[in-house]
Amino acid sequence: MQTNTDALSQLVHELSKLPGIGEKSATRLAYHLLNADLEKVQRLATALVHAKEKIHWCERCFTYTESDLCEICANHSRSADSICVVERPSDVRAIEASGKFKGTYHVLHGTLSPVDGIGPEQIRVSELLERTRPWAMEDSHKREIILALNPSVEGEATALYITRLLKPLGIRVYKIAYGLPMGGSLEYADRGTIGRAIDNRTECN
User: Residues 164, 126: contact at Cβ < 8 Å?
Assistant: First the structure.
């Protein structure tokens, strides 16, 4: 009789903590790994540890990178006058796949959710203000913030909060158009839908 502390149960338990992985999926993954060659499992384990040790947040936009600045922030051909604000690093990859945006990004790492105790201090809003504050003293109408937050109650509330902070500074704030259902996610949208959403962005009032 197996106990909850045996190696297989522990493996299933840890795998089931991954997003989108329930107990049944975790069990299938566990048996797949057990049936694989030891060398393949060791390569996977090494890759996980290596990624955790080497990858950190970009010091400017807070997406993931192995350098001080990510490839996008370090690319001088990208427009520094256009910042696309997203919830997660995975959203950066989704928008980049559309090929429609040529500016830089700012990753909030979450959205406002008072019910969950997540306020402006828990996400990267203050860092966004630091990046855009010099714009208010310059020719700000040439610059833009594009809010590409997921169409959820929390995403809408966060977009409204950021708009109210930036509009008084004379900064143009846009929100992408959506071909996504309420509660959908940019991460899983196809590149055509995301591309049209970027092209058809509307200015926030």
Answer: no
